[in-house]
Each structure stands twice: as C-alpha cells, then as structure tokens.
Amino acid sequence: MSGPVYPACPDVCGPDEWTYVMRRDMQEIIPGLFLGPYSSAMRSKLEQLTRLGITHIVCVRQDIESHFIRPNFPDKFKYLTLNIADTVTENIIQHFAKMRQFVDESLANGGKTLVHGNAGISRSAALVLAYIMEKYGLTCKITFTNFSINFKLREAFSLVQQRRFCINPNEGFIAQLAEFEPIYKAQRTLQNGQCSTEKGRNKRRFDELDDRPSQGLMAEAMDVANS
To answer: Is 112:106 a contact under the CB 8 Å cutoff?
Structure first.
C-alpha cells in the first residue's frame, strides 16, 4: 500500500511587517480560509466580511462567553459554533472533523470561511492548524529537553504564523495536534487503500464479464458501473 498523497500547499503572501494592531483583524491563511479575532466578525464588520467574500464563519467560544461571543449575522452567513474552553485539559481534537467538513463544504461551493475565537490566538488557531495539517500533510514534531516538553509544529505552524504572527495555542492544544498527525495520516492511507482495492475489484469484475456469453452482458456491466 502506497503512502498518502496530499495536494501542494498554496502560496499566500503574508504581511511584510507585523504590527500589534494587526491582531485585531483577520488574515487569509490559505485561499478561502481566514483566521482572526471576534472583533473581525462583529456587526460593524459586515461590509468587510461581504467585501472579502466570506460565506461561512466558525465561531469558537465557551459557554460563559456566549453572551458576548455569538453569531451576529445568522441570516447572512452559515455558522458553525463550537464550544471550546481555552484550557490545557480541553478536548479540542474532537472538533477537528466538524471543522474540516464545514470548511471543505465552503470551499467546494466557492465560498470562504472565517475562523474566530475571542482573540484569534489559541483555540481558533489550533483548529486552523489541524485543518492545514490534515489537508496538506504537514508535520507536527515533539522533542524532549531537560524533562520539559518543547512542542514544535514545523511546516504548519510556520505557514500560519507567516500570515498571523500572533498565534499561540496553549500546550494542551499543541499536544493534541501532535497526537492528531499520525491519526489523519493513517486515515488517509486507509482511504487510499480502500480506493485502490475498490478499483481493482471493479476491474476484476469487468474482466470476468468479458469471458461470459454476450447474453445479458450489458445489463451486468451496468450493474457493476452503478455499484
């Protein structure tokens, strides 16, 4: 079984210089996927959201934040609201699949997605990192030095930080991103293997049809093609 194959990571130029005030706005990480703070999705930002072509918004918050971090335009954009606390014990990995499906749906229909939390630094950044890691097969490494853990997300972290320099997921999220890497790679390998197996199975079935009498051949071939 061959290893997983991933698309090439697109090139999106980041800012020439990062300034503190830029953290208050959203940045495009890859084409069609933006990361930013809640302030980039407030009511006063409707014109900017529309101008940038945003169609989907991932709103990340915990329950106690719901009175001030909330979907502001449910009639204009499609929302995915995720309840995630910014703590090292929070299970964020359980949300990666929902995030991927939501963003993929947006991109498949020509849309654009904004992912925001409160500050756009930890929770929302971790979700974007996970999406990019899985989509492009980028790596996450862990090294141990003097009994302390130094988490290093190499390509994925570098790519996102080039666009939004202030990202800083908490250590618990970084640990889960490290755990996620072998999971998504194994899933991709399994999917590739299943596709190859199915193609081989259908080819064998068509080859078998070639050796059968012509009577009923077209009907059987149609059954195989539609199976």
So the answer is: yes
For tokens 């090439």, the residue is: 8
Q: H helices within the chain, ranges in order?
A: 46-51, 96-108, 123-136, 155-163, 171-210, 217-226
What was the pLDDT predicted at 95?
Answer: 98
DSSP 50-68: HHTT--EEEEEE-GGGTTT
DSSP 8-state code for residue 152: E
End-to-end CA distance of the chain: 24
Residue of 127, 125, 135 whose CA lies nearest to 164: 125
User: What type of residue is 109?
Assistant: N
Task: Give the tokens for residue 142.
Answer: 């862990």
Encode pLDDT of 38-92 as tens digits. Answer: 999 999 999 999 999 999 999 999 999 999 999 999 999 999 999 999 999 999 9
SS (H, E, C) 173-209: HHHHHHHHHHHHHHHHHHHHHHHHHHHHHHHHHHHHH
CB proximity list for 194: less than 8 A, separation 6 or greater: none
pLDDT for the residue 206: 39
Query: Taking a C-beta distance cutoff of 8 angstroms, is the pair 60, 127 a contact?
Result: yes
Q: Which domains does the chain have, with CATH numbers?
A: 20-187 (3.90.190.10)
